[in-house]
Amino acid sequence: MLPLSSWPLAQRRGIIGVFTDIDDTLTTHQAITPDALQALADLKAAGLVVIPITGRPIGWCEPHAYGDAGHGLPAWPVDAMVAENGGVAFAPTLTSKNGLQTLLNQGQQLSKIYYTEATERAVNTQKLQHVAQRILSEIPGTTLSQDSIGRETDIAIDHAEHVTLAPEKVAQVVALMRSEGMQATVSSIHINGWYGSHNKWEAARWMVSSLFGRQLEHELDRWVYVGDSTNDQLMFRHFPHSVGVANIHHFDGQLQHWPRYETVGERGAGFAELAQAILQARLA
Question: Which residue, 66, 82, 80, 147, is CA-closest to 114?
Answer without folding.
Answer: 82
